[in-house]
Amino acid sequence: MVTFVGNMSWVFLQSRLFNSRNPTLMKQPPFRPILNPTFAVNVRATSTSSTSTLVVETNSTAGPVVVENEESKSIKKKKKNILACPICYDPLAWTVDQALSVESVSGSTLQCSTCKKTYFGNETHLELTAASGAKNYGEPMPVATELFRTPLVSFLYERGWRQTFSLWGGFPGPEKEFELTKEFLKPVIAGNIVDASCGSGLFSRLFAKSKLFSLVVALDYSENMLRQCYEFIEQEENFPKENIVLVRADISRLPFASSSVDAVHAGAALHCWPSPLAAVAEISRVLRPGGVFVATTYILDGPFSFLPFLNNIRQNTRQISGSYVFISERELEDLCRASGLVGFTCVRNGAFVMISATKPT
């Protein structure tokens, strides 16, 4: 922090701020604050990889004054606009300018800048599927997907269903899983995160309450799961609603601009996706360079993976239920590599596996 009093030379201040070893600061045009010579102020320069901010702290009761250059304001505004049309992937714009949060969703309207299709928000979430607005057309999903859309399963998910994962699947439990996930997400802390196939928002809420991310998008295809997530948020006192939004979307048609997302998390979901390859490829598209994908799922390996008839059983299971059974770590690594992700790593505990991979820089 640099401290100066009264009529301290602005040239001296510039030399301290813009001759820093931080190359980002050196590139910024000079700021021109107007200072009152009768009181003391503290000046500190903050920066990220793409923006810089000058904070002037005074002894006034009004508190610190934040001065930003135009480039910084433009970049921040652009970063907030990650939503895109799930049909043409071009940006969505609010018809009325507002922040992206769970509190601003109800009654909101967004429009695609290219195809001009309009999307709406209801009481709980934004409806951003490709079929949004269709009155007479609908497509049935696999059994595994439709099961989680039912009100009963959505209600039971955090009231007993999810707990069984620890009993017979080797899942270490939400708290431990969250701690493991945070380790993988360290490179993208303070960025935005999409909790894909979030269910009733168990991890979405943990991400929001941790305040480690600038924006949390709780995304699921099930309307009833999102309603459960909304109810949990409403029931919890002092929940940080300003940095979380609920979105209904198809995992294979994500409503985000390319290279706009810092992290994607998918807890106990990969095996339920109709096409894991299509989904992970879509995740790779929306991740920015250096962005991180973290997921948990079940894996069947060991002596069973060498049984000659296992592949036939797996194919039949997938055709009937829509669930995908993974039989090796190599298969998961190959899935990530085929989708353009690198740096595959995993953590195992019985049938439980947590994987992580990164978008190349």
Q: H/E series, N to C?
A: EHHEEEHEEEEHHHHEHEHEEHEHHEE
Average pLDDT rating? 81
Overall 3D form? globular
Kindly identify the CATH topology of the domain at 137-359: Rossmann fold
Percent of residues in beta strands: 15-25%
Instruction: Just name the CATH architecture of the domain at 137-359.
Output: 3-Layer(aba) Sandwich
CATH class designation of the domain at 137-359: Alpha Beta
- Order of neighbouring strands in the sheet with most strands: 8-11-10-9-12-13-15-14
Major beta sheet summary = 8 strands, mixed
Cα-based radius of gyration, to the nearest Å: 24 Å
Taking the alpha carbons of the first and last residues, their distance comes to 33 Å
Low-confidence stretches: 1-58, 71-79
How many E strands?
15
Number of helices: 12
The CATH homologous superfamily of the domain at 137-359 corresponds to Vaccinia Virus protein VP39
Helix content: 25-40%
Structural class: alpha/beta
